[in-house]
Write a structure and sequence with these properties.
Blueprint lengths: L3 H4 L4 H19 L4 H9 L21 H4 L18 H7 L2 H10 L2 H9 L1 E6 L9 E5 H18 L6 E7 L4 H13 L2 E6 L6 H10 L4 E4 L1 H13 L9 E4 L6 H10 L4 E8 L4 E4 L7 E2 L5 E6 L12 E7 L10 E7 L2 E2 L12 E2 L3 E3 L3 E4 L7 E4 L3 H6 L4 E10 L8 E9 L8 H13 L4 E4 L2 H8 L10 E3 L3
Parallel strand pairs: 3-4, 3-5, 5-6, 6-7, 18-21, 19-20
Antiparallel strand pairs: 1-2, 7-8, 9-14, 10-11, 11-12, 12-15, 13-14, 16-17, 18-19
Helix pairs in contact: 8-9, 11-12
The structure holds zinc ion.
The site of zinc ion has 7 residues, from loops.
């Protein structure tokens, strides 16, 4: 794998050459080991020789989570996305030169096992849909350590930095990406396990005692941590970066944190379990720096057609140099404001970048709020909306049945702790009007005590806070 400083500053033509070469290698030598993609191409009458460069990828129909989810007929569907070479397939499709190299440099069997045997698992973390396993070989774990070190280099971290990792201990990419990164770079790090494991008090103590320079966290929990620190009058003079991951950071949340700790830089990462790694900003206003030797990322419009460079669209991901579970032309469900190959105006790197404005595709749920008809409500819209209101300290959305009666109408509750305290008589009206205006549904707003709401969110007890809760089922 190329040195990141060299790779990330190559001219565009060279970057495209690397991508085309890796794509041809995948199609010729690895695709035969991939049960789903092998059939997918056959089903659509695409010959491997039809795919010579990343432009040709457009011939391959897009796939989505629906293709990976287990079905009644095929309960082990995710297994079809794992590269599974057997001896005969290796002999037939794997490059002879590599086999010879493996034989010369060590044990052939061990080398192939390192490359292909899945030994590590992450699960997708979607709030509503079923969890899908994504598997890593030993080679993939080494790649994950490499990308971890690329993230730290891009974000400007040095060996002298001291990291507090507040991601929960879980079989999720976020935690493991940080663990691999700190180990690979050789940075001192306390992996706290988040609110559920070490708890907020001890994490704040650690930030102070260790004189941590970097805090890494989920946005919702990170916001909770810095608010709590501020409330207790704590200072972190050495803290210079907060790096968020695992979820999108809304501009309102970013602003609220900046208001409390103006000298801290807030960088976010973007990742998806299917892409097996995370990408980071080099600056608060930069895009996410991609790894062109590992993946090809494109944006598509609603019809699934690739959009022109710089135009907004849905992020579609193709793995170029991963083993274990891999996807090709995978619709992530994330909408991005644009993708550029122009050199980064902040760090000068020439690797492609996704614009920092990324939102989940609308997730509409039908609610029966009146006897007349159901209303479609975009639940994802609550995040930027409520995080952006300065008066709101914490919030939670609940969907309930009226009087807990399954035959009754649905009710949309917004539970709010505002900065003025529980007795405030103005914020509930304001939130109600604001939500009604922006989302075209009128919620029931309940003012809460902040500690009770923090408990209800599960800040100290859940892996991820329970921001939107559907209690109808
Ligand atoms: Zn940059």
């Amino acid at each position: 794998m190329k040195n990141w400083e060299t790779l990330s500053r190559l001219p565009r033509r060279k970057i495209e050459n690397i991508q085309n070469k890796k794509l041809r290698f995948f199609i010729k030598h690895l695709l035969p080991f991939h049960p789903f993609l092998r059939d997918h191409l056959k089903k659509h009458a695409i010959k491997p020789s039809d795919i010579q460069n990343t432009g040709d990828l457009q011939k391959i129909p897009l796939i989505s989570k629906q293709d990976i989810l287990p079905t009644e007929n095929i309960p082990d569907k995710p297994r079809q996305f794992i590269l599974q070479p057997d001896t005969a397939a290796i002999k037939k499709h794997y490059p002879k030169s590599r086999l010879i190299k493996y034989m010369i440099t060590g044990n052939l069997h061990e080398s192939l096992e390192r490359e292909f045997k899945p030994i590590h698992i992450h699960f997708t973390t979607g709030r509503s849909s079923a969890q899908i396993p994504f598997l890593y070989s030993a080679r993939d774990l080494a790649t994950l350590a490499q990308t971890g070190s690329r993230i730290f280099q891009t974000a400007g971290l040095a060996k002298e930095d001291i990291v507090v990792n507040a991601f929960p201990f879980a079989p999720h990419l976020a935690f493991w990406q940080v663990q691999k990164a700190t180990e690979a770079v050789g940075i001192r790090c306390l992996h706290t396990g988040g609110g559920k494991i070490l708890g907020t008090e001890k994490i704040l103590n650690a930030l102070q005692k260790m004189e941590a320079t970097i805090l890494i966290s989920l946005p919702g929990y990170g916001y909770h941590l810095v608010k709590e620190a501020k409330r207790q009058g704590r200072n972190f003079p050495k803290l210079r970066h907060i790096i968020f991951g695992g979820e999108r950071v809304s501009p309102g949340l970013r602003e609220k944190i900046k208001g409390m700790f103006p000298d801290v830089t807030i960088l976010s990462t973007f990742a998806s379990t299917e892409a097996k790694t995370a990408w980071v900003q080099c600056h608060e206003e930069s895009g996410y720096h991609l790894y062109p030797d590992l993946e090809f990322v494109e944006l598509v419009d609603e019809e699934g057609q690739r959009v022109k460079e710089g135009q907004p669209g849905e992020i579609v991901y193709t793995a170029l140099d991963w083993r274990g579970s891999t996807v090709m032309r995978y619709r992530t469900g994330d909408m991005c404001a644009g993708l550029t190959y122009e050199p980064c105006t902040h760090c000068g790197r020439t690797t492609p970048r996704l614009h920092y404005e990324i939102e989940r595709k609308s997730e509409h749920k039908e609610l029966r709020l009146s006897k007349v008809k159901g209303e479609l409500v975009n639940l994802n819209a609550f995040y930027p909306l409520l995080n952006g209101m300065k008066e709101i300290d914490e919030w939670q959305v609940e969907i309930r049945k009226k009087d807990n009666d399954v035959f009754e109408l649905d009710e949309l509750h917004v539970n709010v702790a505002c900065v003025h305290g529980e007795e405030c008589t103005a914020c509930d009206v304001m939130v109600e009007e604001y939500v009604a205006r922006e989302l075209a549904v009128r919620p029931v707003v309940n003012m809460h005590d902040r500690q009770l709401l923090i408990n209800a969110l599960g800040m100290e007890s859940e892996l991820k806070e329970k921001r939107i809760v559907d209690r109808r089922v």
